[in-house]
Every structure is written in structure tokens, then in C-alpha cells.
Design a protein that fits this description.
globular, 2 domains, 42% helix, binds magnesium ion, Rossmann fold, binds adenosine-5'-triphosphate, 311 residues, 7-stranded mixed beta sheet, alpha/beta
């Protein structure tokens, strides 16, 4: 299973469009694909795929990440019904849910930030997982980076993207060190959201982006068909299969499959420590709910007796 995060802390650069387009193109190739909507804005779920968010009472990614819910990942997943799927393939989605915004505050409290998402998905049964990240270098993006086999970075060919890419590169190094994982491969940059023919300014910025030494994949130029596909809740590969954007998504999917064949090293998800803060919080909450006289004693029993292992 290959996990690809679509990241860029810059807003509106085409992360969600690329996540949906690449995931749908992989499903069209007959791959079993899971798209995770990790952005609390929920645009992949609601705006691009026309799916409802998970109901408040239902199992959700937010609950799974904070261990308020510990069931199998299959219960978080909904199939997307209106996407062309190749034989043997699937296009499933973990939709957004209430509580995704609050999740950032809650995850920040955890002792070992970074591996929660990797743990939620580690036993999933897919060829590809594609994660649509929020426009921030926050705990959610860090979780996606920790879990990733590699990343796709959509970029607009302009000056601000160069600086954004430098910041992202620093953040990636920080996450690699903090969670102590192997280097995160860049599957590629995906230039997009520019008008054709490309201006001199955009061409110069694109040349500079080439200088990062990261593979530059197929471009996704501006096209109103992207908005039309989203308005119908259908990936552009199914809505307008002959467009330049749909063809590009297929080429990107092919590149992702090529990486998968080379079997890049998946991150080794560390075993959970004996004392897990998430479990501690959950159990404290439950102990309080019992409201009996022994509650205090229970809280004491739950406290860690060993010092934290140094990292
Ligand atoms: N190639 C394209 N042509 C025309 N419109 C596009 C194209 N790609 C994306 N868009 C539109 O541009 C807007 C921003 O794209 P998208 O939501 O994919 O960016 P994002 O990086 O995910 O944004 P955010 O940072 O808010 O999550 C959306 O309205 C989307 O429909
Ligand atoms: Mg987005």
C-alpha cells in the first residue's frame, strides 16, 4: 500500500483538485484507492465529490485520530458512486466530519505527535491512499507526512511558490527528525493554475522550481472544466475524460503506480508505548463518568509510573 500526501501550506494551489484527480485516475486504472479528506475545510468531500460529511454520531476520522473511536477503518469509509472505475478497482473516501477543526488542538496535546494517522490507516486494504492536506504546516499535515510513502506538491509557477517550497522542505526535515523516520520521497511537483500560453514570468518561475531537483510531473493548467466537474461532484477524469486536465491526472496516476512498483520504503510505524496519552485521557474521561467514590483512586492508578522515555 502506497500512501501519497498532497501537501503545500500555501492556500488555493490545487491540493484538493490534485488529490481527487490523482485518486480518481488511479481508480480508473483498476487500483483500489482510498482518498482521505484531512483538511478541516472539507472541500474534497463536499465541494469536489458532492458527498455529505460524516454525521456527528457516526464513527469519524476525527474520533479515530483521538482514539474516541477504535473500530476498523472500513467503518470510516464511503464509496464514491459516480467515478469511472477500472476492473478490480475502487474509489473510497474518508469524508470530513464535525470536530476536524477541534482536532488540531486535541492532537497537539498528545505526547508523541505524528503517528496517529499512520496507526489509523496501517491495516487498510488498498493499493493507494491519497491524503488531501490542509493549507498549513500543522499537526494534521505533520501526521500525513509521517504516514507518507511520498508526497505530491502542487505549485503555481510564481515567485511565492519558490519560498513556499523552501519552507515546506524545512518542515519535512523537521518531521523526519521529530518522528524519527526515513526521508520522505518527493514523488513530484505538479505545476498548475496558470493560463496558457505560459507567460515569461511563469516560465521563469517554473525554471526556478526545476532547480529544486524534484521530478516535475504533468501540468494542470487552468480550465473551467475543473469547476464544472466539481459542481457535479464528479472527478474530472470521469466528467470530461478527454480534457488536458484529465489526461494529466492519468499521467500523474501512472507516475504514482511506477513509484509503487519500485516499492519505496514505507515508514515504520513504531509500536505504541506502554503508556499512551490518548488512552489515558479516554480512560480518565470514562472513570469520571462512573462518578463513584473510587474515581479518584482510579485516576491515580492511571497515572504513568515511569518517567517518559527520552526521544
Ligand atoms: N486547473 C484548474 N483550473 C481551474 N480551476 C481550478 C484548477 N485547479 C483548481 N481549481 C479551482 O481553484 C480553487 C482552488 O483549488 P483547490 O481547492 O484544489 O486548492 P487547494 O490548494 O486545495 O486549496 P486550499 O488551500 O484552500 O485547500 C478551487 O475552486 C478549484 O476548483
Ligand atoms: Mg484543499
Amino acid at each position: 500500500m502506497q500512501i501519497t500526501s498532497v501537501v503545500n501550506q500555501k492556500g488555493g494551489v490545487g491540493k484538493t483538485s490534485l488529490s481527487v484527480g490523482a485518486a480518481a485516475a488511479l481508480a480508473e486504472r483498476g487500483r483500489r484507492v482510498l482518498l482521505i479528506d484531512l483538511d478541516p475545510q472539507g472541500h474534497a468531500t463536499t465541494e469536489m465529490l458532492g458527498l455529505p460529511e460524516a454525521p456527528p454520531q457516526a464513527p469519524s476520522l476525527a474520533k479515530a485520530l483521538t482514539k474516541m473511536w477504535k473500530g476498523p477503518i472500513e467503518e470510516l469509509v464511503v464509496p464514491h458512486p459516480r467515478c469511472n472505475i477500472g476492473r478490480g478497482g475502487a474509489f473510497d473516501v474518508i469524508p470530513t466530519s464535525p470536530g476536524m477543526f477541534d482536532l488540531i488542538r486535541r492532537l497537539d496535546q498528545f505526547r508523541v505527535p505524528g503517528w496517529q494517522l499512520a496507526r489509523v490507516v496501517q491495516f487498510a486494504n488498498y493499493d493507494h491512499i491519497v491524503i488531501d492536506c490542509p493549507p498549513a504546516l500543522d499537526v494534521l499535515t505533520n501526521n500525513a507526512l509521517a504516514a507518507s510513502s511520498g508526497i505530491l506538491v502542487p505549485v503555481q509557477p510564481d515567485r511565492t511558490s519558490i519560498r513556499a517550497l523552501r519552507l515546506l522542505r524545512d518542515q519535512i526535515r523537521f518531521v523526519e527528525q521529530t518522528v524519527n523516520r526515513a526521508p520522505i520521497p518527493y514523488f513530484g511537483l505538479v505545476p498548475g493554475l496558470y493560463r496558457r500560453p505560459m507567460s515569461h514570468y511563469a516560465t521563469a518561475a517554473l525554471n526556478e522550481l526545476h532547480g529544486f531537483g524534484i521530478p516535475v510531473l504533468s501540468h494542470i493548467p487552468l480550465g473551467v472544466v475543473m469547476n464544472e466537474a466539481a459542481a457535479h461532484g464528479v472527478p474530472v477524469t470521469s466528467f470530461a475524460p478527454e480534457t488536458i486536465q484529465a489526461v494529466s491526472f492519468r499521467e500523474i496516476a501512472q507516475a504514482l503506480d511506477t513509484y509503487a512498483e519500485q516499492r519505496p520504503e514505507s515508514p515504520v510505524v513504531p509500536a505504541e508505548h506502554e503508556f499512551v496519552f490518548e488512552d489515558f485521557i479516554t480512560e480518565v474521561a470514562e472513570a469520571r463518568n462512573t462518578n463513584d467514590n473510587g474515581a479518584r483512586k482510579k485516576l491515580y492508578d492511571l497515572l504513568p509510573k515511569r518517567p517518559r522515555p527520552s526521544r
